[in-house]
Design goal:
This protein is of the alpha+beta class. It has one domain. The chain is built from one helix and three strands. A three-stranded antiparallel beta sheet has the order 2-1-3. β1 and β2 form a beta hairpin.
Length: 75
């Protein structure tokens, strides 16, 4: 089993218009990048929180990251 770190954020299609908010999700490590185990993915999530969030695994309002298990043949 492999793991992907998925970064999710809420993006306004029209700046300042809360009715235009849309979720966006992406592989936080880049296209087709996976982790060999959950702990490696969680460590990457922690580092991402330092860059894109407020640190110590927290991301603040409108942002989140999750480690998702996948079958290794899915990529």
């Amino acid at each position: 089993m492999k793991w992907i770190l998925v970064y999710i954020f809420i993006n306004p299609l029209v700046p300042g218009d809360v009715m235009s908010l849309e979720p966006v999700a992406t592989n936080a490590a880049g296209p087709r990048v996976t982790y060999n185990d959950m702990y490696e993915c969680f460590a990457a999530r922690e580092r991402l929180s330092e860059i894109a969030g407020i640190g110590q695994g927290h991301f603040g309002p409108g942002k989140q990251a999750v480690c998702v298990p996948i079958e290794s043949t899915d990529i």
